[in-house]
Amino acid sequence: MFAAEDGLKGDPRLQAISDAIRVIPHFPKPGIMFQDITTLLLDPKIFKDTVDIFIDRYRDMQISVVAGIEARGFIFGPSIALGIGAKFVPLRKPRKLPGEVISEDYELEYGTDSLEMHVGAVQPRERALVIDDLVATGGTLSAAVNLLERVGAEVVECACVIGVPGVEGNGRLRGKSLYMLVEPRGLHCGY
Fold it and tell me: What residues in the chain have per-residue pLDDT under 50?
């Protein structure tokens, strides 16, 4: 679901967020239209508006865990967690977390990767939100959901700043709700 479908249609913040995202053609490879959120971060008002929209949505959902996907999920996740009174749990690439971890492998359009989480960071029956900057195919979000559910958490929703229409219906998220603020600009998005 896009934010515009969630009662925010016509909200000028959404257009400002979209306009603040720089598109870099043919990065990191030909045909990819890279959606660069670093330009959004340069404007404190737009950055705050982005975080505030998520906080307004999740404030009353009794979420106790915000799980951010490395690396750009780390930009939005901690602020959202603080805003809703939840803990932040980083989901990292392999060999980045000290201590005991559990991992989940997933497919990318150009290979495979893995996400890891500290053992004990999330408890059974905790209500979790998964956050990242962009979703294209849903593979990384699906791995995050699997990782959290393996430890007994209830994933309430996945959320991204930028989302491709129709990704929530591709089956990878196994019926989990997906909330996205804006659509990518350009022909083929990536990051």
Answer: 187-191
